[in-house]
Amino acid sequence: MALDPITQAIRIQTERTSQMEHSTPLFLTSSFTFEDAENMRAAFADETDDNIYSRFSNPNVQEFVDKMCALEGAEAGFATASGMSAVFASFMALLKSGDHLLVCNSIFGSTHTVITKYLPRYGITYTYVSVDKPEEWEAAIQPNTKMIYLETPTNPGLDIIDLAFVGELAQKHNLILNVDNCFATPVNQKPLEFGAHLSVHSATKWIDGQGRVMGGVVVGKKELIKEIYLFCRSTGPAMSPFNAWVLSKSLETLDVRMERHASNALAVAKALENYPAISWLKYPYLPSHPQYDIARKQMKNGGGIVCFELKGGLESGRAFLDNLQMLSLTANLGDTRSIASHPASTTHAKLTEEERLAVNITPGLIRISVGLEKAEDILGDITQALGKL
Ligand SMILES: *Cc1c(COP(=O)(O)O)cnc(C)c1O
Question: Is the pLDDT of residue 358 over 90?
Answer without folding.
Answer: no
